[in-house]
Structures are given as C-alpha cells and as structure tokens.
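[Automated response] Your request has been received and processed.

Submitted sequence:
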Amino acid sequence: MWDYSEKVLDHFHHPRNVGTLENPDGVGEVGALACGDALKLMFKLDKDGRIADVKFQTFGCASAIASSSALTEMIKGMTLEEAAKVTNADIAKYLDGLPEQKMHCSVMGMEALEAAIANYRTGDTTVRQLKDDPLVCTCFDVHESEIVEAIRINGLSTVEQVTNYTKAGGACGKCKGRIQAILDRELGKAAPAAAPAPAAPPAAYADLSPAKKVLAVEKVLESDVRPALRLDGGDIELVDAGASRVQVRFLGHCAGCMAAALTKNGLVEKKLREALGAPDLEVETV
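Generated structure:
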C-alpha cells in the first residue's frame, strides 16, 4: 500500500474542479488510457488575463486524481506566465509529497498545463515538434525533452528515478540504455558503452510444447508487462497458454479497471505478439 499524505487522500476522495468548460481558452491532453493514465485540462481567462476557471478530467490512480485536483486549485487566479512556472515538484509539495513511484502523476499534470497554455497561445494541440524531440520510450510515448525536464527539475540521477517520474523504461525496458545516456549527458559523465543488442525472439511459438509455451509467455509477462502494471498498483497472472490464445487474469488495481480492455489489447497482446513472433495470438481475460 502506498503511503499517501492526508492532502493526497483528501484530493483523491474529494477532487476539486472536475468536469469540462464550455468554450475554454486553452485545452491540454496528455497520457493514454492504454498506458493507465490520461489527463485533460482546460481553462478560461478573465478580462485581466488571469485563470478564472479551470476543469479537468483524468483517468488514473489516486495520485493522478489528487495531482490533477491540486494543480487546478494552485493555478486559479494566476496569469499564464505565472502558471507556466508551476512544476511537478510544486504539485508534489502542495500535496505534502507523493510516493516516488507515483511522481509521474505530478509530471502528467505539469505537461497537461504546458499543453493547455501552448494551445491557447498557438492553437496547436501538441507542445513539441516530434522531429526535434526524439521518442525514447515507445511503450509509454515518452520523448527526450520530457526526460530531460524531469531530470533537471527534480535532480534525478538514476534510471529507476526517471522511470518513477516519467514511466519511461517501465515496461519492456529496452530504452533504459538511452535513458542512461541522457542521464550521463545531463550529469556530465562520459557516455557508457553501447547497450547489448536485444535477444532474438523465441523461435516459432506455435511449434513449442505446451510447457514451453507457458514458460515463453510468462517470461514476456514478467519482463515486458508486469513492470508497467505495477507502476499503478496492478498485476497480471497467466492462466493458460495455448497455440493461438493466451488467458490471463488482471490483479490489484487492474482488476475491474475500466481501461482493462485497452490494457489487454494495447499492452499485453501487443507485447506477446511482438516478443513471441506470433502476430495472430489473442489474449483473453478470465
């Protein structure tokens, strides 16, 4: 169980400013339901250019809801220049702290605010130019600028900390070498040796014996799926592995989650198909 402050619990159980605004001046959306977290933030300005009203809709854990609620309370009455200076560290401080494994929720709030302000100023719905901002973590769609910003604002020094703050590296882990290289660059260290090439996928999943199918699937779940689910208090259990269908059971916060179907298709099934070389493999929840 996470050790939440009283403020986090209060904003989780009694979130402020939930909903939508008619004709908002700025709208920002970050995250994705398939990844377990998503946030939409919108605001309206008064005649003096201050944030008169702000609303949010979020899908995620207690920390995501509390961080979003706290952020809306923090920025009311601010000018956009003042609001743009609010960092994820400010959100966590306002809440009397967050578990380090949940700091990515405060980062999501900061990014949604940045996107909403950019939307107001430019009309664009994206904050960054992707060609100038390389994608580092394909599992959670985390770009280099987001990792650099998290490192600089929060004084991060390890890959594990970057994962806690951004989710990057929290699923398959193949991007951890790139995250380390970014850390080394930001911390002024020499570049590390090149990461070893990823292991080749197992041969012909359909030709494996029943026992080896179970072992192959379990290996993928342990390395590429469970780390992502555990970031939000969830887990997964393998029930059966057949030639064309795998049965699993979601546990923890993932059990009964509204986004379970998206997680099954967008994460579990995708990772199994890629790692096992079985493009027609189907995943079923029981």
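Summary generated for your ticket: The longest strand covers residues 37-45. The beta strands are 26-32, 37-45, 51-59, 135-137, 142-143, 234-241, 245-252, 282-285.
If you did not submit this request, please reply to this message.
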